[in-house]
Write a structure and sequence with these properties.
single chain, mainly alpha, 11 helices
């Protein structure tokens, strides 16, 4: 996906760096995870916080397999250490690695849980975290496709228009998925309207 240069710029945000005990924890946790010392890692559970989860994910981000294993482990053993930010981080990691089915599964979990009241807030959250976690434009495409799969066509159309405003153009595959879902429901009128947006 290419970014249109005549678009609204995406804001830069930063993540506070871990220091002291936080930094020690992140380094030890990272070492246990990359060496698959899960028994050692289990002993750290009581000291796990959202801030630490976020920084462990940042260190693991080049390896989507370990990142997803860690994310799922936290979800099972200490779910209150997950926040919207940690969910957005794993989305960024997965979409950069082109693991779209896993990303879509996490997005569906967020949407079904109702943890975000308005779909527009989810788009904004992804947008604000985009530069913070060195994400990929594919993360917006995954959100668009997830809405199409869930047959939430109004939400998909909104995402399509919003991401175009920021210069993120959809892939042919995601547009085909959206139009195909509409045609399955005999909504030719909406499909034609969407086609004319392009």
């Amino acid at each position: 996906m290419k970014k249109n240069l005549n678009s609204i710029p995406v804001t830069h945000r930063t993540v506070p760096e871990p220091k002291g005990q936080h930094l020690d924890f992140v380094n030890i946790a990272y070492s246990h995870l990359v060496h698959s010392y899960w028994d050692n890692f289990n002993s750290l559970i009581t000291h796990l916080t959202p801030f630490r989860v976020k920084h462990v994910l940042l260190k693991l981000q080049k390896d989507y397999v370990i990142s997803l294993e860690f994310f799922n482990w936290v979800q099972t053993h200490k779910p209150n250490s997950h926040t919207l930010e940690t969910h957005l981080m794993i989305l960024g990691i997965l979409t950069k690695s082109k693991k779209f089915k896993s990303a879509e599964s996490i997005l569906k979990g967020i949407l079904v849980s109702g943890s975000i009241a308005l779909p527009a807030l989810l788009f904004d959250a992804i947008l604000y975290s985009y530069r913070m976690f060195d994400s990929s434009p594919c993360v917006f495409d995954s959100l668009f496709k997830t809405y199409a799969h869930m047959k939430k066509f109004r939400n998909a159309s909104d995402v399509f228009c919003q991401k175009k405003d920021y210069g993120f153009l959809p892939t042919v595959e995601s547009c085909n998925k959206y139009i195909g879902s509409l045609l399955d429901l005999n909504r030719v009128d909406i499909a034609l309207g969407f086609y004319n947006l392009n």
